Amino acid sequence: MSTSSFAAQLTAQIGEEFAAHQQYLAVAAHYESLTLPQLAGFFYRQAREESGHAKMMVQYLLDTDQPVRIPSVAEPVNDFDGIIAPVELAVAQEKRVTEQIHGLTRTAREENDFAAEQFMQWFIKEQVEEVATMQDLLAVVRRSEDDLNAIETYVERDLAAAAPDTTAPKQAGE
Q1: Which of 31, 68, 64, 33 lies closest to 47 in space, CA to CA?
Q2: What is the DSSP string of the chain?
Q3: Could you tell me which of 111, 118, 12 has the C-alpha nearest to residue 58?
Q4: Cα distance between residue 141 and residue 148, in whole Å
Q5: pLDDT recorded at residue 2
Q6: Tens of pLDDT, residues 53-108
Q7: How far apart are alpha carbons 157 and 139 in whole angstroms?
Q8: pLDDT of residue 3
Q9: CA proximity to 138, closest of 97, 80, 90
Q10: Cα separation, 85 vs 76, whole angstroms
Q11: Is the pLDDT at 1 greater than 60, yes or no?
């Protein structure tokens, strides 16, 4: 079975999504160690979401009869100073993933792979939301660095767990 360029690029993206999962676990653990349960919970949810994105991509490869390979990932950043650096890292990570998603969509379009291009549309929408959420969180964390309770209140009030997105692609194993 030959692998399309899109499928090869999507396989690499599966690794990126699992790396993001690991990174958000490390961020969550950092906030947990600082007894910031709302921030920790938010990043634990983000970690689950990134893992879910990888499993959506795995399911797509399965559905399109492409080979599935799970790439290895590098160790995440585990040591942070303070509360701002992890969110700065998250913003940069989400911006990088956005570029990767755009690249995948471009490849699908260049290959005239209409199913792949349609599959990527949900991820484009998702990345707009992810970048905006992380940028807002960064603004709040910077503004309230000396008032951790204000940050925790913001996260609890504005970044609480949302209902599942019924338009999301199916995840492998579910």
Answers
A1: 31
A2: -PPPHHHHHHHHHHHHHHHHHHHHHHHHHHHHHTT-HHHHHHHHHHHHHHHHHHHHHHHHHHHTT--------PPPP---STTHHHHHHHHHHHHHHHHHHHHHHHHHHHTT-HHHHHHHHHHHHHHHHHHHHHHHHHHHHHHTTT-HHHHHHHHHHHSPPPPP-TTSPPPTT-
A3: 12
A4: 8
A5: 65
A6: 999 999 999 999 999 999 999 999 999 999 999 999 999 999 999 999 999 999 99
A7: 16
A8: 76
A9: 90
A10: 14
A11: no
> Residue 21 corresponds to which amino acid?
H
Q: Do the beta carbons of residue 18 and residue 70 sit within 8 Å?
A: yes
Query: What's the one-letter identity of residue 110?
Result: E
Nearest residue to 58 via CA among 168, 173, 140, 159: 173
Residue 164: which pLDDT band, with cuts at 50, 70 and 90? confident
CB-CB neighbours of 5 under 10 Å: 13
Region 32-36 average pLDDT: 97
